[in-house]
TetR family transcriptional regulator (Streptomyces albidoflavus), 448 residues
Amino acid sequence: MATRERRPERRQEPLSRERIVGAAVELLDTAGERGLTFRALAERLATGPGAIYWHVTGKAELLAAATDAVIAPAVAPADAEATPEQAIRTLALGIFDALDTHPWVGPQLTLTERHSPLLRVFEGIGRQVQALGVPESARFTAASALMSYILGVAGQNAAGSRSVPPGTDRAAHLGAVADSWAELDPGHYPFTREVAGQLRVHDDEAEFLAGVDLILGGIAAGLR
Amino acid sequence: MATRERRPERRQEPLSRERIVGAAVELLDTAGERGLTFRALAERLATGPGAIYWHVTGKAELLAAATDAVIAPAVAPADAEATPEQAIRTLALGIFDALDTHPWVGPQLTLTERHSPLLRVFEGIGRQVQALGVPESARFTAASALMSYILGVAGQNAAGSRSVPPGTDRAAHLGAVADSWAELDPGHYPFTREVAGQLRVHDDEAEFLAGVDLILGGIAAGLR
DNA sequence: ACCTGAACACCGTTCAAGT
DNA sequence: ACCTGAACACCGTTCAAGT
């Protein structure tokens, strides 16, 4: 009577690099960085841990591939209609969102890595910096500053959500931090106390874009 | 004849949280993040791994303590003579240097951690932002942007030097990356190719400060 | 109160053996 | 060519036992 239940739920596709990376991203998203295990991955793919090594050299490459899979779609080509400023905001927001949904990516990103997925981002920002009319000698600095800022925010956001049990309410967490800021010693932390309220109500994305605009303002000021 | 050689080289100080954290920092600096092991640490301290747990709850706290030990001295109180801009540059440079000598700190830093060593940095920046004459409603944004930028650069630098065998010549590594940039497909990466030369010769610290000045310029522009 | 070090429950990675 | 899964050399952490 239970004999027929053994049939697999769905036909087993062959193992492939693509499936492995996809499963790795899922695992990282749901279980966090510590959740990505060759054993857990193997179980999800209904195979043994050794099989994965046929398609991927090791954990480092797996993480790099997962990072790439998540960043690449975030970098859409610029809308031809957009102003350089708008194009930069769109690009920045793309990475911001990607790192927001996948908090584990942040630490993986390095621009100096030889085939970094950030190269596309840097290129995109650089072109718009050029379109803004920044002279050649100042372009590298301007593009780097924008990149660094974006990665800094994303990294902080990611670190913040990593330090919290996955699925915790973001607003609640922010509120708790704001509370602790409001309770700081006024003698040592007058400024931080003062802005605790702004931390509590602030909109991550709007705050992020305000920072981008601050840098764009500095770039524009340099052109005058 | 060999009997007397067994005397310990130096008198063994008692184990303490301070000694443990100090040894952890040394281990992290010399052997990298993967080098920090309870066994390696125990060996350095001439004890068993279990002994460490009497003074420290676990690896997470150990890393946090090591991070704090490295960041705290980098945040000196502002020179009373300095302009707000200068004070911000000094502060920024302090963290930059700390993260540069200790590349493993970057990923540990989160502002939203309840007792983050970054709180002091944020407070310091915030005060100077206030001194610049930024209106209250814009201070949080300005201070956050500066913080994020600083952490972004530091994180990138750290990630860069982490991806390289410890002790490798920095200039050589930068040169190699610049070479690979210069060889990029001109159709897809015209901007990055163009600035490859600037990456090769650029001065990390000067570039970093130029970015700080860009944000300060944006803040100043907002005041006009 | 503080330290010891064996033991437990994990890891990433390898590899002989299978198909 | 691709997969299996036991085995190896590690981890962080615990804990009975010592001083």
Notes: Chain B is about 65% helix and 0% strand. Chain B touches chain A through 62 residues (CB under 8 Å). Residues 1-11 of chain B have pLDDT under 50 and may be disordered.
